[in-house]
Write a structure and sequence with these properties.
alpha+beta, 6 helices, 10 strands, globular
């Protein structure tokens, strides 16, 4: 299979005898039970529960591989290093592997956020790797109303649950403490997610709520209040989630 490499993604390897406990105390998903064939989408948050980085975790024996934005890999590694202190943990680039994606390969794991995103796996880069797969995945992902990365989520700007993280499997409420856990849990249990990140046609953009203008796709990514959302603008998975919350 060729032409599946997501060239805008990079991998960090977290290794050492304390690698998993180290990440367990930082991230929104459980790391101790992570397996190689069941990746997990997670976030590294501020103490106030706002998104700093989002990425996908892969188990590799006792190690953990972080599938992240290539443009943010060094910044993420630096941030993790700040938390490492004296722990026996190594944080390094994993250059031997790349992230792959396809809608057609049925024997690979689904993207952990939503099965409709397609299949995702780790392997050496495609011999003819170009930007085509990355562009195709971005367009497909945004057509489903799913956001990622600094351009779309910002940094220290949007609360993790406002990114629709709960609906996309990006948080565990029974894993114990992590950075930003207190406010994230409070919002969940009090049903206080009053704003949502959504994509609307660019000609319907609200400049005051806009987080990013994607002119090549004709979309505006905006943080809008739930009570003002037009269900027709929402992907089915998000519309169903909000309707369920309103009914409680």
């Amino acid at each position: 299979m060729t032409g599946t490499t997501l060239t805008d993604r990079a991998l960090l390897r977290i290794s050492g005898e304390e690698a998993r406990p180290f990440l367990q105390g930082l991230l929104t998903r459980d790391v101790l039970t992570l397996q190689s064939d069941h990746p997990r989408w997670t976030g590294l948050l501020t103490p106030q529960g706002k998104a700093l980085f989002d990425f996908i975790l892969w188990g590799d024996g006792d190690d953990v591989l972080i599938d992240c934005e290539a443009a943010q890999a060094d910044a993420l590694a630096k941030r993790l290093t700040l938390y490492r202190l004296r722990r026996k943990v190594t944080i390094a680039r994993e250059a031997a592997l790349a992230v792959h994606w396809s809608l057609e390969v049925a024997d690979k794991p689904h993207d952990p956020r939503l099965p409709a995103l397609g299949h995702r796996w780790l392997a050496p880069a495609s011999p003819d790797a170009g930007a085509e797969a990355a562009a195709a995945f971005r367009a497909h992902r945004l057509s489903l109303g799913i956001f990622e990365g600094v351009e779309e989520l910002g940094q220290d700007q949007i609360l993790w649950l406002e990114t629709n993280a709960q609906e996309l499997g990006g948080v565990d409420y029974d894993k114990g403490c992590y950075v930003g856990q207190e406010n994230t849990a409070r919002m969940h249990y009090r049903n206080k997610v009053s704003r949502r990140l959504v994509a609307v046609p660019l000609d319907q953009a609200d400049d005051k709520r806009q987080r990013a203008a994607l002119r090549d796709l004709g979309l505006s990514i905006e943080l809008r209040r739930v009570e003002g959302l037009d269900p027709a603008l929402l992907p089915d998975w998000l519309a169903a989630a909000i309707a369920g919350e309103a009914a409680v």
